[in-house]
Amino acid sequence: MESPRFLSRSDLIGLAALALLLVVILPLSLDVFRLNLVAKYLTYAFVALGLVLCWGFGGILSLGQGVFFGLGGYGMAMYLKLEASSVANTKIQSTPGIPDFMDWNQITQLPLFWQPFHSLTLTILAILIVPTLFAYLIGAAMFKRRVGGVYFAIITQAIAAILTILIIGQQGYTGGINGITDLRTLKGWDIRPDHAKVVLYFVEVAFLFGCILLALFVRHSKLGRILVAMREKEDRVRFSGYSVANFKIFAFCLAAMFAAIGGAMFTLNVGFMSPSFVGIVPSIEMVIYTAVGGRLSIFGAIYGTLLVNFAKTSLSESFPQLWLFGLGALFIAVVLIFPNGLAGIWRDHVQPLIDKVLNRRKSGSDHTSGKTLGPVAGGAPAE
């Protein structure tokens, strides 16, 4: 059967290898606790995937992807919190039927912007639309005025800082520094037991593969080629008649939507959401995940996310004071020694060796079957 146009042979191999790792090897080799940690790591892979499109292909470095991750996470947390705040569950409060942190802050009525989160359908729509719309407003304000490069990176970083301060300051509406905690059920289904964690892991993997396929489609489409051309020669693309600003806005919005999906899955897997996942530090860490894996590689970014988070967990358990130094050294090493990340190492050093071995085997097979490698009929060299 002929492969779809947006899936090359290497893409199919990459998908198969990743599926083997995430669907078979890790679930069979890890206990539920470690598997839930992997699920947490994979929520960041959604962000890294978006950064590959936005930064790797489009040349737009955003240091504020934590904003969209947080918006998605808070959207899901608001729905789960309302479900956990039924009148029966909160009858000891002075105002039953509202989240506990609102009651502690003397709020007696559910705010208007919380009302849509009684519905799971509206919550899902909000998770997908609100961060994307916010990204559109930022992108339109910046790219239409040809603000880019380091200035755009600094502005996104400032937005992440502002949103963090806003969330912490509005404790009565957001839970403040503690965030939204004590999340229990999704449509009556308890998300806390081990078997629920396993189910959520596979659901998350399914969503991740859906996003990967969408990213591969964009990369192999005309849109993807224009993004790469825009990254290399922005003025030439503009003079060719394309609207550079609109293409940048699209890439930024798509990356924001991916990040929001990751944030929503984070809330479901971890069971809370707080401003510590929204600000500058987590946003920069998400860029590091992408850089380590390779900002030009869709699969590389996912492996980079898994590797850095695994190292973070392992090192922080043994050397909690040294982890941040290690993370900084890792980022410096990526910039100075292997700028294309793990994917670049694979492409430049490992893949040529594999191709060489395969070519030798193929040559041996041709000799065995009586074929010659010399010039073929008509004088054309054999490949």
Automatic annotation (TrEMBL):
Keywords: Cell membrane, Membrane, Transmembrane, Transmembrane helix. Residues 361-383 are annotated as: Disordered. It comes from the Bacteria. The chain crosses the membrane at residues 12-30, 42-71, 117-138, 150-169, 198-218, 239-266, 286-310, 322-346. Pfam families: BPD_transp_2 (PF02653). The keyword ATP-binding does not apply. CDD domains: TM_PBP1_LivM_like. It is found in: Cell membrane. GO terms for cellular component: plasma membrane. InterPro entries: ABC_transp_permease, ABC_transptr_urea_perm_UrtC, LivM-like. It is a multi-pass membrane protein. GO terms for molecular function: branched-chain amino acid transmembrane transporter activity. The keyword Membrane applies. PANTHER family: HIGH-AFFINITY BRANCHED-CHAIN AMINO ACID TRANSPORT SYSTEM PERMEASE, SLR1201 PROTEIN. This is Inner-membrane translocator. It comes from Rhodopseudomonas palustris (strain HaA2).
